[in-house]
Design goal:
By secondary structure, the chain is an alpha/beta fold. The protein is built from 13 helices and nine strands. The strands form two sheets. It has a five-stranded parallel β-sheet with strand order 7-6-5-8-9. It binds phosphoric acid mono(formamide)ester (CP) and norvaline.
């Protein structure tokens, strides 16, 4: 297995499934009130270049659940690549802690951290992808349907970092993946090429459709995210003009399979990409999905540190 968790595309479907199985097991133990101190005395450094609620709290709690500890390093503290080179930051931190989690703007920065640190590095979101989110998404889908194989997962909106990781985990684990969104906001072609190779191995399909209603017909999972990601704030007005046809509202959800679930990585912009009636309605799994970050990440850390 890889030293670092930078992308789900770096892992085989068997490795991903094993991490998900461990997440299910750890969640079961936690629910029964019996966390195992598997990572006693292990510490994680959490480097954030951007704000966070879920990633920060779930990683911190994940470490506590397994008997370890976490240090939060705020955007103003490290000055990654500004106050100090990434190579130097990586080598210094690696002498203090056992694992690094980093949320960065430029994907290349988390890749460089992993290259220079001789301890595992976990990508807590970059401009390219969000692999920990995808693991929690897959866990949530598994809990609802028992498998990803043969399911239709539709991502609506910006072909962004969350879409990339979702597409990769779906095609790795045999779910069909569709993206529907406006022109000029497609998923990166290089990420699509990777997904096509995974899909041909797992037997799943990848589709693209500009019509959101046609795209969600027969969908088992409807997934959306913000129209404007962190770092794109100056484009917000322009984006608000083109994305409204891709809002996840009751009409759209009623077009999908009657048992379809709705996912969103959060934070949600209610009234924009998702309406209140959907976010708080019977198809929504938004909060179990957010809570699954804790269990999915616990499994990632335990696997990377080889302490299972
Ligand atoms: N979904 C997610 O990563 O949320 P945060 O930005 O709050 O960490
Ligand atoms: N696409 C969003 C996800 C936030 C968790 C962003 O990058 O801001």
């Amino acid at each position: 297995m890889k030293k670092d968790f930078i992308a789900v595309s770096d892992f085989s479907s068997t490795e991903l499934q094993e991490m998900l199985d461990l997440a299910i097991q750890l969640k079961k133990e936690w629910k029964a009130g019996g966390n195992r101190p598997i990572l006693h005395n292990k510490t994680m450094a959490m480097i954030f270049q951007k704000p966070s609620l879920r990633t920060r709290v779930s990683f911190d709690m994940a470490m506590r659940h397994v008997g370890g500890d976490a240090l939060y390093l705020s955007p103003s503290e490290i000055g990654l690549g500004k106050r100090e080179s990434i190579a130097d930051v990586a080598r210094v931190i690696a002498g203090y802690v056992d694992v690094i989690m980093a949320r960065v703007f430029d994907h290349e920065h988390v890749v460089q951290l992993a290259q220079w640190a001789d301890i595992p590095v976990i990508n807590g979101l970059s401009d390219y992808n969000h692999p920990c989110q995808a693991m929690a998404d897959a866990l949530t889908i598994l809990e609802n349907f028992g498998t990803l194989k043969g399911l239709n997962v539709v991502f609506i909106g910006d072909g962004n970092n969350v879409a990339v990781s979702l597409m990769h985990i779906c095609t790795k684990l045999g779910a069909n993946f569709t993206h529907t969104g406006p022109e000029d906001y497609d998923i990166l072609p290089s990420a699509i090429d990777l997904a096509k190779s995974f899909a041909s191995e797992s037997g799943s399909q990848i589709k693209f459709n500009r019509d959101p209603y046609a795209a969600v017909k027969d969908a088992h999972v409807i997934y959306t995210d913000t129209w404007t990601s962190m770092g794109q704030e100056e484009e917000a007005k322009k984006r608000e003009a083109v994305f409204p046809p891709y809002q996840v509202n009751e009409n759209l959800v009623n077009t999908a399979d009657k048992d379809a679930i709705v996912l969103h990585c959060l934070p949600a912009h209610r009234g924009q990409e998702i309406t209140d009636d959907v976010a708080d309605g019977p198809h929504s799994r938004l909060f179990p999905q957010a809570h699954n970050r804790l269990h999915a990440q616990k499994a990632i850390i335990v696997k990377l540190l080889g302490k299972e």
